[in-house]
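Data card: per-record layout.
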Amino acid sequence: MKKTAALSVALGTLVALSAASNVALAGEKKVKCYGVIEAGKNDCAANGHSCAGQAKADNDSNEWKYMAKSECEAKNGGVGKPKSVDG
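The structure for this 87-residue chain is written out next.
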């Protein structure tokens, strides 16, 4: 019984922290974040194609996706401009 209660409290805490994090990111301005997306998960045109979802390679420095600025910086992406190859 004690294990079930402790597990319930831990799970509830995890859900609450996740929701708080999502609310904080939802209020933040979104920017074009370059160089951090997986192939096929880009937003809009870049790299010689005209549509979302056409990125051919993971972490291509010229492909971008809209995301919160803090999220982009945490992923070491290029905020608002293509990510420099040099870093």
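Known properties of this structure: The CA atoms of residues 21 and 46 lie 30 Å apart. The mean pLDDT is 82.

See the next section for split statistics.
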